[in-house]
Amino acid sequence: MSLAALHRQVIRCRLCPRLVRWREKVAHEKIRRFADETYWGKPITGFGDPRAELLLVGLAPAAHGGNRTGRIFTGDESGRWLFRALARAGFANQPESVSRTDGLTLAGCYVTAAVRCAPPANRPLPAEIHRCAPYLLEELRLLRRVRVVVGLGGIGFRAAVDALRSAGRLRLRRRPTFAHGVCHRLDDLTLLGSYHPSQQNTFTGRLTEAMFDAVFARARREIEAGRMRAGPR
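RE: above sequence
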């Protein structure tokens, strides 16, 4: 399967009735400031550089962010934090993304999510995370150059752990634990954890820009170290 074929499969997905009803309800009813826009209202694919060495795994599209724009982290406050940090670290060509056609490109980086549909209250059910898991596993298999995986938030981190284990790339006796800035070196890649750039973290100061920048600076160092250990791919 190619990434393009996987993306087509994701967009057609209707495996989770609760999420289908919610994403389509939100897309129909909208909110006042986006009343004139046509919402995407379908599952969200990952996006970025197919030769990525950095893979980011978030939670899910926001109801009026990715569910509106059709691209994860695009058009919401979490995305503003993420793309500013990626631009400062040299992984994005611009610090903001408001639509799928705004010119944003990622260099050496691919962004995806544990769940592909906007969940009510941003809380997917365990069964919904489980049904989405094969999509992340297939992305991990297709992105053959990945050297560093960053789990954004506990759900993104755990989804990344499960995908790595299913792909046979996680052989640690103990399951990796999540914390901001945590670093787990595996056989052929590095797994990092970061608080999710959600408003409940950024508005409260639990996650600062300096803390977020440190994660991507660490990711850059781990990529360079991985290149030296393994040689060019």
